[in-house]
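Minutes, project check-in
Item: structure for the 424-residue chain
Input as provided by the requester:
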Amino acid sequence: MRVIKLPYHLSYIDLKIAEENLQNVLISKKQEEKTKEEQRLIIENALDNPINSVSLEHLAKEKKNILIVTSDHTRPMPSSITLPILLKRIRGSNSNCKIRIVIATGTHRITSKKEMLQMFGKEIVKKEEIIVHDAYKEENIVSYGTLSNGLNLKLNKVISQSDLVIAEGFIEPHFFAGYSGGRKSIFPGLASIDTIKANHCANHISDFKAKNAVLENNPIHLEASEAAKKARLAFILNVALNHKKQIVKAFAGDMNLAFLTGCAYVKKQTSVQASLADIVIVTNGGYPLDQNIYQAVKGLDNAVNCCRKDAVIIMIAACKDGHGGEAFYQIFKKSSSLKATAKKINNTERDKTVNDQWQAQILIRVLLKHQVIMVSDVKAKQIINDMFMQWAPDINTALEMAYQIKGRESKVVVIPDGVSVILT
């Protein structure tokens, strides 16, 4: 019997599986645990050696209004380490400037004060001006012109009020944007809901280039990059994290080249050979990405790469925040047939895209091919059932349910962190 520890919320749960059933455990290259001081040194070194850019201090000189874009509560960005360093360097170069921090929420709910304290620490929350982007508040949105394909680019007006825009974030594989980080801080991070919906339209999501670890000709990435350029994103600090959400590498400098350098590193560190099985067990990497079903779609979509025909996927995600999006949930709640709903979404024109349609489109794509069992908080049970999936109270019960569907001799692949590996 093998015991495998799998991330769940803020801790781990134990999967017990017979050796004869276990086909493979797919993990990326392990990186050593880092101390806080080591992580700070990694950041300082990256900022001392910016990629294709002058230093942050040089950029900040004589600027009056500086904007730092950061991640929201759904991302494990270690801002309590990075932000103090950024703020110190900026003020060391320009003590008279006004600095504002804006949280790039995209379409997610507003980040709470409690979450800010967890993300940034008391000192920053108390002393700094922090703005939380709200994609639905039109009074805070202005037009930044049109993209080359005609998309009306609407972003938070705080960008236009700043004469230097920098962004911090982290890079990991992203299931339809290729990679997180870089340009995504601006778009969708600070975009209006209408602009986000147009970018996440059915045609883009169904494009075969809109997938994990693909940037070339990816329509979602291309629009986001053009949007960030229009927003005058001048400097980024992006990090790569290990399994403990600790900084192992940092990339600072030019919006494009620093980001691409980071993507190349992440690809090398996280690429794993896929292994096909009848049962695939996957997690969303624990907190914060397993807060809700909406985020769990990322791990589910990646797990498909290891699925044989009609395979069962077991997703381990606490989902203490429920579905993660009312519109997302209602698409399933109102659906009498996944096939009919998929057809309706796929036929939706770009300017008719509805909220969270993209996430539903991808989840339905998974569910039309595979049964999904979710190991989650009991409060999410009814929601999971309403969304055409099965609920299980623990991992070993879920595995027994999968054996009953696929047979006692079924082979099992385990992906301990479904959002941090690129399955090739």
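Outcome recorded: Residues 79-93 form the longest helix (15 residues).
No further action items on this chain.
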